[in-house]
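REQUEST ID: PR-0412
SUBMITTED BY: lab tech R.K.
PRIORITY: routine
TASK: structure prediction, single protein chain
INPUT:
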Amino acid sequence: VGYPIVSLQNRKDLHAYLRDLEAVVIQTLAHCGLQSARREGKTGIWLDSRKICAIGVAVRSWITYHGFALNIAPNLNHFNGIVPCGITDGTVTSMEAELGHPIDADTVKSRLAVEFQNIFGKTLPNHGPS
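STATUS: complete
OUTPUT:
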């Protein structure tokens, strides 16, 4: 889960922030060998009809809150009894399921931090707890 808290005072455009946050995840996944994309009319990041990352953002006084949940290696069976994010025409997936091997969460977090810096021009103070 990424929960960036960013001031948008100098760029009051929530949609642009959302697109940039999506780009952070898309670039991270590409670095790991997964070609993902936005999906017209849907939120989050997708591999065809499989959602790999949920995103929800909001602002108060032009400070962001909420963020994203990138599925690195969850137990996908936990999604069987619910309709996650209202998805009725697709499913949920994970990096581990798509790549077919275990994924190190710390490596993914480090890459997310690199991509965040590349796109937003800001260095994250820490990557949070493991």
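NOTES: Strands lie at 45-47, 50-60, 63-70, 91-92.
REVIEWED BY: pending
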